[in-house]
Amino acid sequence: MKGYLTDVPGIKVGHSEKVSTGVTVVLPPKGSTCGVDVRGGAPGTRETDLLRPENFVDKVHGLILAGGSAYGLNAATGVMEYLEEKGIGLDVDVGIVPIVPGAVIFDLICGDPKIRPDHQLGYLACENASTEENRRGLVGAGIGATIGKILGPEYAMKSGIGSASVQVGDLVVGAITVLNAFGDIYKNGTQIAGVYDRENKKLLNTMEIYPHHSDYNAFSSGKNTTITIVATNGKFDKAGCQKISSMAHNGYGRAIYPVHTMFDGDTIFTVSTNEVRGDLSYVGALASKVVEDAIIDAVYAAKSFCGFPAMEDVL
Fold first, then answer.
1. pLDDT at residue 212, as a whole number
2. What is the pTM of this model?
3. Which residues, in sequence order, are CB contacts of 78 under 8 Å at separation 6+?
4. Which residues, other chains included, contact 12 with Cβ-Cβ below 8 Å and sequence gap of 6+?
5. At a CB cut-off of 8 Å and minimum separation 6, what does 167 contact?
6. Span 178-198, average pLDDT
7. Does pLDDT of 133 surpass 90?
């Protein structure tokens, strides 16, 4: 086990970057199902309504995580083009339509806000996808991610992509997370990252700052969002995947505080490759743990970039 999403058999992950933003693509094997749970108050998402259990389509062909705020959703067209060329998609008689749900983070405060993920970057991420991908930190959609932004970019820290996985018998559950949270990050109840006073070289606490900033404007200080893809080889339909996503948000709750604010677009997708039997409640609990670990991993794997200090600088 590498501690990555690609520990789930058949899952491919690919990254691409452009200066200070990027795209991360997950390409699941044929016959994979998917569910989603959106908890934040400011989501940027694609095809999430389609994943509702009562709606028609029950298979996905790719998933995308991207920077660029709403502009980054454009990268999904490149993923669709790649999949269409490979003959992968929903058969609609006159052709195929690849189903590619996704979500984006607001990373426009890192580097040039006019540089955003596009069609070409989405296509390139697919070309780079493999079952061996195991990079973390400043890669793909995580290259422009930051955390702890209640006092604005001058007090924010760098984060990135984190991952984790667990295996119990034949069952495997993994998670990949782009950590771009408004709040602070905790490990075992202790704050390890978040709002950082660069002059005095110390971490500050968002919830202690909050009462003194009643006029706080999230947009002027940079918007946020933590987005995650959980994958498992357990057999689950869309409703089951949705429930796993719901339980996986407990990992957000343990590692990020405050979380699911009006300034975040927190979203978790769960994709099932439908290979082995798995208990829904048990897999949901495992998912919450790997999501928590992936968030913490994103902090440890980050490097300083765009003037934002990473944990290694704070330590």
1. 77
2. 0.96
3. 118, 119, 120, 121, 122, 123, 124, 125, 126
4. 6, 26, 27, 28, 129, 130, 131, 133
5. 1, 7, 173
6. 96
7. yes
Sequence-separated contacts (24+) of 50-54 with Cβ below 8 Å: 50/99, 50/101, 51/101, 51/238, 51/241, 51/242, 51/269, 52/238, 52/242, 53/237, 53/238, 53/239, 53/242
**Is the model more confident about 172 or about 312?**
172
Burial of 177 (0-12, 13-18, 19+ CB in 10 A): buried
Structural tokens at position 236: 């689950």
12-57 residue pLDDT tens: 999 999 999 999 999 999 999 999 999 988 999 999 999 999 999 9
Contact (CB, 8 A) for 284 and 248: yes
Angle, helices 280-301 vs 238-255, to 10°: value is 40
Task: Report the Cα–Cα distance between both ends of the chain, in Å, rounded.
Answer: 28
Write down the pLDDT at residue 313.
85
- pLDDT confidence bin for 210, thresholds 50/70/90: confident
Quote the distance between the C-alpha of residue 287 and its chain's center.
14
Predicted pLDDT at 55: 95
Residue whose pair of structure tokens reads 């790649």 in the numeric block: 82
Q: Is pLDDT of 71 > 70?
A: yes
